[in-house]
Amino acid sequence: MFQDRYSLAFKLYPYRRSADQDAAAAMRHRVVVMGGGPIGIAMALDLGLQGIPVVVLDDHEGVGQGSRAICFAKRALEIADRYGCGKAMLEKGVVWNVGKVFHQDRKVFEFNLLPEAGHEYPAFINLQQPYFEKFLVDRVREAQAEGAPIDLRGRNRVDGVELRDDHVVLDVATPEGNYKLEADWLIGCDGARSPLRQMLGLDFEGRVFEDNFLIADIKMKAEFPTERWFWFEPPFKSGASTLLHKQPDGVWRIDFQIGWDIDREKELKTENIRARLDQMLGKDIEYEIVWTSIYTFQCRRMKRFRHGRVLFAGDAAHQVSPFGARGANSGMQDVDNLGWKLGLVINGKAPEGLLDSYDAERVHGADENILNSTRSTDFITPKSKVSHTFRNAVLDLAERYDFARPLINSGRLSVPCTYDGMPLNGPDALAGGPARTRPGSPCPDAPLGGKFLLAMLGGGFTLLTIDAQAPEAVVADGVEARRLALSAGDDATGALCERYLGEARSAVYLIRPDQHVAARWESFDAAAVEAALMKACGKE
Amino acid sequence: MSRLNTKIDTGLNTKLNTGPNIADPDGFYAELIGIHEGLDEAESQALNARLILLLANHIGDRAVLSEALTAAAANEGAH
Fold first, then answer.
1. Domain boundaries, position A313
2. How many domains does chain A have?
3. Which of A330, A370, A405, A440 could form a Cys-Cys staple with A419, CB 3.0–4.6 A?
């Protein structure tokens, strides 16, 4: 009855019989999350740490094998840090800053991400997805021990969904038979092929890219630096493009673009993969193949991420090409955005309509990610002769002229989007304030002596004051914003001033639980802050 | 790698701006490729020719145009 679709890297939530399976009638839960991948587990952590009971259902018992998403961006790590597992990821991950771009046998240029100083987390780490997931589940176990009401159920497969006005009814299969479960809210984090989306017959539209990519993860003792190397039309002819990237445990990710019309089985044969690798690395280099896979991709999203009591997050809601590392990273931002909103709604502190802002903001984010990853894909895999001609002209010119370099697109790396013009945003009333912290922006980190700003924001609304008076807390209709009082002098490096004051001499920021700016002023005005807090909770 | 013979004089006499000068480079590039969509090769070539002439007229400065023509041609036969 249960057929594994993949083998496990880590068995993290083995099947255990739940009391629900012996209940006379279907038990009602606050939230059920479908899918125990990185996004589902992060969702459960977000809600569980707020004290909201959440059940996660997954048809497997842990994390699948294969490195898959290997590039985790600063924002995803900052979110993980808020959940209490960012440090473990950073410690295991490989930090890289330099990228080199080659065309045929020539280096076209190299770039340095030059991460801005004064952030606790680097721009990117490379980390195999199973580790990312394991650190999240490890954190769930810790949180459970501290009393967080999170229930992970492996080998629990959702076979049917019925939508009711104010809840959903699930038919769940287990190795010991089926049982029914009810949930006030259902969150689909069940991946790109989302069975939930299919059961509900919902759309998932966009562009299909006709190309195959072959991943080979190998262990080798070779003198490659910890850099991202990208070849357009590599001289070793192992692919139309090739990417080389370092992972922890001495593993290298090599990604070959191998074209549309291929024989999948044949290409996945070890001797054929070795032939490609030998062509690239030369015959003298010894390596061991750790994992291989062929993937294709699409850039598409659901029209809406909220359907009444059902919400979608991560790949289930949107899919991008891998160029730019915008898949798992954007899923983490979905969770970050949805968690506090659903928490307020469930606790009766905000109207259900607040969840429509999840749809608006994350659809906006998905569109930005799809646009960027589509453009990268079009540059890397030109679809027409003229497109190919222009692409190579850019590469040729870029060797000699700076102007052509910004046109080279081997992936625009994931950065969180700014929710410009979105309905929850309050006033931008800080004259001379920096553009990067305008309402809707994700808060940039800043050093504060031995600490960092983001770590001090906590999980609720924050009233950040810099050299401004304000009460210790502001409450509007049951929702509290706690003050974090800072002074420009708290950061000797000047980063805090540069990022939050600009030309202003003082500032008051209302910051959402997901660390996006809701509104900002020069000084505290109770009525204005209360109104902005109401607006940020969808009460307008 | 014998590209020395194709090196362009980038000394003080240069007037051609070869530094980054296009706002939203990704958006521009997508639009540039986009206008070719659905065209066959000859149509694309004709479109490119019209585009070059329009841009050349906008630049106007004969010295700059000559420099750009030389820079573009210098790549021929490089590989």
1. 8-86+122-203+300-368
2. 3
3. A440
